[in-house]
What does this fold into?
Amino acid sequence: VKDEVREANYYLDLLLNDERLTMASNDYEFSWVNLADLVNTVIQQNSALFIHRQLVPHLVNLDHDVLTDPKWLRFCINQLLSNAIKYSPAGSTITISWHDHALAISDQGIGISAADQQRIFENGFTGHNGHQTTQSTGMGLYLVKRVASKLNFTIRVRSKVGQGSRFYLIF
It folds into this structure.
C-alpha cells in the first residue's frame, strides 16, 4: 500500500507542478542552496525505493552552494533520480556528483537510444523505453526542462543503450 501511495503522490506532484509552471506568476524564491544537503534530503525521501530495488547512492563532491529556488531544484533532482531508479537494474549504483558547475546524476540502467535523446524533453514523449513500462508519462523530463529554463540553468543528457544515462544540470 505504501508503494502505491508513493506512486500516486509522485504522479500528483507531476500534475501539480505542471499547473504551477503554466501560471503567469510563479513563486520563485532564490537563495543559496547546499547541494549535499538538498541531495541527501531527496535520497532520504526515496530511501524505500533504493532499498526495495537494492540500489546504492554514491555521492561525489557535492559540498557546493548554488543560487537557485530550492523547491524547484529539489523537484528537478527528484525527477532525475526517480528516472534513474526506475531504469536501473537491481544492485547497481546511482552516482550524484558535482563537476565543472554541473550536477550530474548517473545510472547504470538501460540507457536511451540516440534517436530518443533528441526528443526526451518534449511533452508526452515516452520513447522506446517508455513503451516498455506503464510507469512512463512523458511529463517528467519535459517539466525538468521547463524548470531549468525558468531558473536559468541547462539540462543535458549523455546515454548509451545498455550502459546507462547521465543527466547534467548545468549552472
The helical segments are 2-22, 35-45, 47-53, 70-87, 114-117, 127-130, 140-151. The longest helix spans residues 2-22. Strands lie at 31-34, 56-60, 65-68, 93-99, 102-106, 154-160, 164-170. The first strand starts at residue 31 and ends at 34.
